[in-house]
Write a structure and sequence with these properties.
It is built from 20 helices and 18 strands. The protein has 544 residues and is an alpha/beta fold. The protein binds ligand LZDS7PUF and potassium ion. One of its GO terms (molecular function) is metal ion binding.
Length: 544
């Protein structure tokens, strides 16, 4: 299943590029010309009136792209300053450098030179691309630092455009590589207006610092689709490289092999939802249980239950302890209530085969979650474990054993650190070499260890299944989603989808995407209560 597009690691990208060139059907020079033309084209699209540009060219093929851009912008009437490394790069970049030299000079790529030349309308960073393996140091680090200072105000002048990626960012993880020599030796994080990347997004464009560093991300087609599909399929068939996808609902679909988001959502929800059961009974749409906690803490579970209802579960029952029943007396009237005081009562409820999903955690209290958890896990019913259930799980004697792949864990960073302290520790280390340990690496390992689907929440949510399949969902454009209670809504939405019969990995992915879409649709000022109310409109817009 692909929502929108695949994500390629830098190693996969290199392999695809090599396969294309080895086929003899396309040369490296042609690919470089297409890459440079794509960037020059995007610049001219945004700034149609020729202006002034400073182009910084590094020692490898990223620098080669920079020389192509220089030639094409010069031909379009732009006034240019080109700075480059005094080396003999690989043959393609060397040829592009020669072609540029017939048009204009190359000044040394030094901080002093960058200070000397007058400010331009745009600076183009073609220093490092996917070939970066270690932190920039010395003169290049100083250049990058100066570039960061010059373009710190993302909307001011000069604007920063990066070729393939911001230089210094590890494209497999989205973190800046550090020399360990201190701030003055390390480049300042870049803050681009536009990044034009080639063929496919890389994890670093979407994870951690990537979205802020890249600015607007454009993926340019440079004619590698044929080789990409072949390589990705071969790797998947050989089970060498499990799929890493982007859930990118707003992103235009590149080519016909991939369904767009609404098509995928229609297929998934149609399977278990009303489209699949035209004369469906409420139980055929699934019965979800949402466990609530002690009196005074009922809001979180009610939010989750409301989201499960709006998400399309046929029936949702909220299960508070007897002492808290009274506080759940209000709307929605569609919500059933049933008291649940001990593990024996959960066991009795779960003997009903119509219970197709259970949500444990939001507002539950750690002790109560811990007392109910063994029975929930014993029944291996599709479930979402969130919030207090995750804290209880981390303290459980047999953790990380006992889960199954129809279970979704939805930790935020703190809960993830309690569940997988070693993985959280590795993520927190200062990255000194690329490829740095990424959130995708961490989540794949977490899901493999515990045998469940794990979803790490954040502006760059990562979801992984025990077989290694993973998604990145980038929601850096909806910062207003990070507000109290939105996680409870997400847990409820996923359990609603589980109850509809959707498999855990897909239910988690759909839940994350629809949750963010609802926030995007509502806009700033959103509170968690608003999210479920957006769902009917969204489903209608998606044609569900
Ligand atoms: N994807 C495609 O199909 C195409 C990509 N293109 C462009 O090519 C780059 C990748 O080019 P590559 O030459 O592999 O890598 P870079 O240009 O990013 O950099 C490699 C050179 O930089 C040196 N390097 C790496 N890290 C450092 C550092 N910290 N300090 C100094 N120098 C560094 C590296 O040297 P090594 O010693 O490590 O070998 C290389 O000399 C891609 O991003 C696209 O822009 C094609 O143009 C079109 C097809
Ligand atoms: K770059």
């Amino acid at each position: 299943m692909l929502f929108g597009t695949e994500i390629l690691t830098t190693a996969q990208m290199r392999a695809i590029e090599s396969a294309a060139m080895e086929s003899g059907e396309v040369t490296g020079l042609t690919l470089m010309e297409r890459a440079g033309a794509a960037v020059a084209g995007q610049i001219r699209l945004r700034w149609p009136k020729p202006g002034s540009a400073t182009i910084l060219c590094g020692p490898g093929n990223n620098g080669g792209d920079g020389y192509v851009i220089a030639r094409l912008l010069a031909q379009a009437g732009w006034h240019l300053h080109v700075l480059g490394v005094d080396n003999i790069p690989g043959p393609d970049a060397a040829e592009m450098k020669r072609r540029w030299k017939r048009i204009g000079p190359i000044a040394p790529l030094t901080e002093g030179e960058l200070r000397r030349i007058p400010d331009s309308d745009i600076c183009i960073d073609a220093i490092f691309g996917t070939g970066l393996t270690r932190p920039p140091e010395g003169e290049i680090a100083a250049v990058l630092r100066r570039l960061g200072q010059m373009t710190a105000n993302g909307d001011g002048r000069p604007r920063l455009v990066t070729v393939d990626c911001p230089s210094g960012l590890c494209m497999d993880s989205g973190v800046w590589l550090h020399s360990g020599l201190g701030d003055d030796a390390d480049p300042m994080p870049l803050n681009a207006t536009l990044t034009v990347a080639f063929d496919s997004p890389k994890p670093g464009h979407l994870l951690q610092r990537g979205p802020a560093a890249c600015g607007k991300l454009v993926i340019a087609d440079i004619g590698l689709r044929h080789w990409r599909e072949r390589q990705v399929d071969q790797a998947a068939n050989a089970r060498r490289s499990p799929m890493l996808g982007a859930i990118w609902p707003e992103f235009p679909v590149r080519d016909s092999r991939m369904g767009d988001f609404s098509t995928r959502a229609r297929i998934a929800l149609g399977k278990g939802g009303s489209a699949g059961h035209p004369a469906g009974h409420k139980y055929s749409h699934g019965h979800a249980l949402v466990v609530a906690g002690p009196a005074g803490h009922g809001g979180a579970a009610r939010l989750a239950a409301r989201a499960a209802l709006r998400g399309g579960a046929g029936l949702v029952t909220l299960c508070p302890p007897s002492a808290a029943m009274a506080e759940h007396a209000g709307p929605p009237d569609a919500l059933m209530r049933r008291k649940l005081d001990d593990a024996g009562q959960v066991r009795a409820m779960l003997t009903d085969p119509r219970v197709a999903g259970l949500c444990l955690g939001p507002g539950c209290g750690v002790d109560r979650a811990a007392s109910l958890l063994p029975v929930v896990l014993d029944h291996a019913r599709p479930c979402v474990l969130d919030a207090d259930a995750l804290t209880a799980l981390a303290q459980a004697p047999h953790w990380p054993e006992g889960l199954s792949d129809n279970c979704v864990l939805t930790p935020h960073a703190g809960e993830f650190a309690r569940l997988f302290p070693d993985l959280a520790g590795r993520l927190a280390e200062t990255p000194r070499r690329g490829p740095a340990f990424s959130r995708v690496d961490a989540l794949r390992e977490a899901a493999r260890r515990c045998g469940a689907v794990v979803l790490l929440k954040g502006p760059d949510t990562v979801i992984a299944a025990p077989d290694g399949q993973a998604y990145i969902h980038s929601a850096s454009d909806v910062p207003w989603l990070a507000t109290a209670g939105t996680g409870d809504v997400l847990a409820g939405l996923i359990v609603g989808f589980l109850a509809r019969g959707i498999a855990a990995f897909e239910a988690a992915a759909l839940g994350v995407a629809i949750h963010a879409k609802a926030a995007r649709r509502f806009g700033p000022g959103l509170i968690a209560d608003d999210l479920p109310e957006q769902l009917p409109f969204l489903f209608r817009e998606l044609g569900l």
